[in-house]
Every structure is written in C-alpha cells, then in structure tokens.
Design brief:
Distance between the termini: 40 Å
Largest sheet: 6 strands, mixed, barrel
Order of helices and strands: HHEHEEHEHEHHEEEHHEHEH
Strand order of the largest sheet: 2-3-8-5-7-6
C-alpha cells in the first residue's frame, strides 16, 4: 500500500516539475485543446442554426402543402419528358372540386407566376418583376408577411379587381414611405392597379431563398387579363392539409378527385403531378446527422 502511494506521489511530483520546466509547451497544449473544443461547439451551433433556418423557410413555403402541376419537380437528363409534355396544364376550373370534395384539405388556391414584367410609378419604374396571380385562399396556404395594408378581399378576388400587393424590394424602390405607397396607382404591363398591401422585405441570404421581394401579387381573374397562363405560364393548385392529416392521406384524396375531374379510366395513368416541399426537410436530416460525433469512426476503427 505504501509503495503504491509513493509511486503515485512521485508521479505527481514529476508531472508538476514537468509543467514548471515546460511552461510554454504546456500552455500551447492547453490552448490547442481549448481552441479545438470551441471549434466543435461553433460547428454544432452553426449546424443547428442552419437547420432552424431551413425548416423555418420550408414552413413559410408550406411543409404540409401539395402542388398540383403538369410537370414533376426534379427531372434531370434522364427524365422521360415525353411522358409529361402532352399533359394538360392545371386549370382554374379544377380548383372548385378540390375545395368541395377533398375532406383532408383545409385550404386550396390556384396561382401562376410570370416574370419579366414592368412596374411603373410616374416616371420611375422597375423591370423584370415577377407577377403572381392568386385566388382567395393563397394567403392561408402560404405565409405572407404583410406589414402595411391588407390582403385581397373576397369581392376583389371574385370580381378580378385591379388591386395589387407589392413585394419588399418593389415598394422600397418606388416609394419614399409605406404611407405613400398604400392607395397609390401603379402600372403593371401598362395596366393601372391600386396598391392595397406591402410585404416585408426579406433580402438575400436564405438557404432556400424563398421570398417575394421582387414580386407583386394580383387577383387571379385580373392577372389572367395580363397573361394567358395556359400559354405563357405553368399554373398550379396548392392544397394544404388539415391539422392532423398526413400528407400521404391528402395525396390519396387529391389523386382521386383529380382523376374524377379529368375523367380518367381506371387503367389510365395520372396526367398530373403531385409535388411537395417536404423533401427539403427530409434531405436535411442525413446532412445534419453527418456532423454529429456518432457519424465519425472511432480511433479503433480507422
């Protein structure tokens, strides 16, 4: 027992003596360990922040939303485009059956985008603006951060009123103040529109970069007088699931309703695509997992 204590005591004295003699080496070793620990903490903090940002942007776009379109998302050189090119485009008349006959759907909206538009206010103007024509429940399917003014009223939507909501970069560039923008008349492709709402400016830097900064929103029935979506756009219907309803259940219900609306025979393939944004969320999980300590091989396995 005494010999063991003596050995431990001698070992401790030798260690303390070594530390006193090699102060610089000891300091550098401790500094290296400290920096390493802080680097690991910083990596995990950055990863968590990136994941939160991705999930937040996905939620903004609609993580429980199905997009009914002619073309499937993805593609690539191996996509059999000949299967899809002759499909009919999604039609406005297909919105009502989905609203009435899909019990798992909470809201549905029809919309189309068309770029390259010119917005004018007096002598000032902006080009290459994205025009979005939307129906009444668009703001219930997709989050809109309206900081001044309001969304379209049902009357404005149903009559195709020439009202407009401006993206953050649009109104900040064309008007000195938000108060000056609300109620003003702007021209969209030569058509007069009354400004009723202003969206919050988001700016660059998002991992998915989902924003409406360079876009304007108009009621669909008005937007179709500017652009024929059947020829010059890729219109789509957005369907949001009810609380507690799985996306798969919603897809099954939407598929049945769309097939009935288009009068497809049982043996005929679907002539529409059901796209969803949740794949971004799913793809993030394995990417995030590769940054955890468990993902690295242990020293014994190398």
């Amino acid at each position: 027992m005494r010999s063991t204590v003596k050995i431990l005591w001698n070992s401790l004295k030798m260690a303390l003596q070594e530390l006193r003699v090699n102060k610089v080496r000891t300091f550098l070793s401790l500094l290296g360990i400290t920096i390493g620990i802080f680097c690991i903490i910083a990596v995990f903090a950055a990863t968590d922040s990136m994941e939160r940002n991705v999930r937040s942007e996905v939620e903004t776009l609609g993580s429980n939303v199905i997009y009914i379109q002619k073309w499937p998302w993805g593609g690539g050189p191996d996509m059999p485009w000949w299967k899809y090119v002759n499909r009919p485009v999604t039609a406005y008349k297909e919105l009502k059956p989905l609203q009435e006959k899909v019990p798992s759907a909470e809201h549905a909206a029809f919309t189309f985008n068309s770029g390259g538009k010119k917005i004018e206010v007096g002598r000032d103007y902006m080009e290459n603006v994205e025009l979005m024509a939307v129906t009444q429940d668009f703001d219930k399917v997709q989050t809109l951060d309206i900081i001044y003014g309001r969304y379209f009223s049902p009357t404005e939507t149903n009559t195709g009123a020439n009202t407009i909501i401006l993206g953050g970069n649009i109104w900040q560039s064309l008007f000195p103040t938000p108060e000056a923008a609300i109620g003003s008349i702007v021209k969209v492709s030569g058509r007069n529109c009354k400004v009723i709402g202003l969206l919050k400016y988001k700016g660059e830097g998002g991992l998915i970069n989902i924003n409406f900064d360079d876009a304007v929103l108009v009621p669909y029935l008005f937007g179709r007088t500017i652009v024929d979506e059947r020829r010059f756009a890729d219109p789509y219907i957005m369907v949001k699931a009810r609380q507690g309803v799985s996306l798969q259940q919603l897809k099954d219900d939407v598929t049945g309703t769309m097939r009935a609306t288009r009068r497809l025979q049982p043996k005929q393939e679907d002539n529409f695509s059901l796209n969803e944004i949740t794949t971004i969320n799913d793809d993030w999980i394995p990417f995030s997992a590769c940054l955890t300590p468990q993902a690295y091989p242990s020293a014994s396995s190398r």
